[in-house]
Amino acid sequence: MNTLYRETIGEGDRHLVLLHGWGLNAGVWRYTAERLAPHFCLHLIDLPGYGRSKGFGALTLEEMADLVLSAMPQKASLVGWSLGGLVASQIALSAPQRVEKLITVASSPCFTANDNWPGIRPDVLQGFQHQLSEDFQRTVERFLALQTLGSNSARQDARLLKSIVLNLPMPPAEVLNGGLEILRTADLRESMTTLTLPVLRIYGALDGLVPRKIVPLLDALLPDSHSEIIEKAAHAPFISHPDAFCEIVERFLIAD
User: Fold this and answer.
1) Over the stretch 211-228, which tens digit does the pLDDT of each residue have?
2) Of 114, 120, 137, 185, most Cβ neighbours within 10 A?
3) Which of 15, 39, 43, 235 is catalytic?
4) pTM of the entire structure?
């Protein structure tokens, strides 16, 4: 039976599940976890097919969320970055009784741009899907480089993300394609309006994948949620600005 890899660290009595983004693994949270461990019991999960969670193929968003739900504590807060933000949001929608608070990081309920919605152009995501079949590793590296573009520490952050990917075997092409398909097609905008649990959305001001123009639109759509923009950060604000990021997370999670 295929099972998800989960690493648990920390000493707090509040459970916090951390979900990574496309192409990566739970190693992205290494420095975040060090800062949060004194305050929380952290559960770092490799999404199905990524990192050490082997043996999975392409999955739908709902299937991925169900698998993570089965691997997490009975009650926890969720932090989901990028694709992980979609997974965390889907968990909160399908099992709200299991989720205390939801934090999405550089994520969107709808990643694909259309006439009235900022995001990634559909042809860009389709291009990545096509390129995966031709030059798998280079395509992943290009996507990682896009995630740090614009921040002051872009080159250093891109190197860190690349090293996290290369430390473990690359996910199978069908898993990566499945993840891109979720980013291309998922739209949780309407569903998210039904959530009643506390929600925090964190963004990088220079993010090219989830542009800051999306923030006021989601502020209006989800008026009970809170948003924070980290200036000079791109798509990986917890890597480029770890202290500011952890301070925002702690403040939200510890507040009653």
Assistant:
1) 999 999 999 999 999 999
2) 120
3) 235
4) 0.94
